[in-house]
Amino acid sequence: MELHAGTFEPGDFAWQGLTLTSAAAEQIRQLTQREPGILGLRLGVKKSGCAGFGYVLDTVSEPQADDLLYQRDGARLYVSTQAMPFIDGTEVDYVHEGLNQVFKFHNPKAQNECGCGESFGVQAE
């Protein structure tokens, strides 16, 4: 029996997707209205912190070819298919914590988070 190592492309998967709370949608809309030419935000991940990965938010003036688009009430959140294995199913919220206002990510794939809440790890499936 001959075994072959296969390859896959993240775009070949059916994703559960991401959801935006109304507070997150409102904040994204406010950010895009302040800067002409900004279409929305892009959510990604990068290797970071003590738990493995961190969330990255950037403004989007031009979508990437592999971006998936999630929308709510006119707010646009772009996500690269490369990030989806780490954040699929995540709810994006915008909350007030004391004097701070921050985006929060409720990620069902996060198996552990660091003490400061800035990074997360995922378990291989």
Automatic annotation (TrEMBL):
Record bears the keyword Iron: yes
Record-linked InterPro entries: ATAP (IPR016092), ATAP_core_dom (IPR000361), Fe-S_cluster_asmbl/transfer (IPR050322), FeS_cluster_insertion_CS (IPR017870), HesB-like_dom_sf (IPR035903), SufA_proteobacteria (IPR011298)
Keyword field: Iron
Organism superkingdom: Bacteria
Record carries keyword Glycoprotein: no
Family annotation (Gene3D superfamilies): HesB-like domain (2.60.300.12)
Name listed for the protein in its UniProt record: Fe-S cluster assembly scaffold SufA
Source organism of this protein record: Jejubacter calystegiae
Protein's gene: sufA
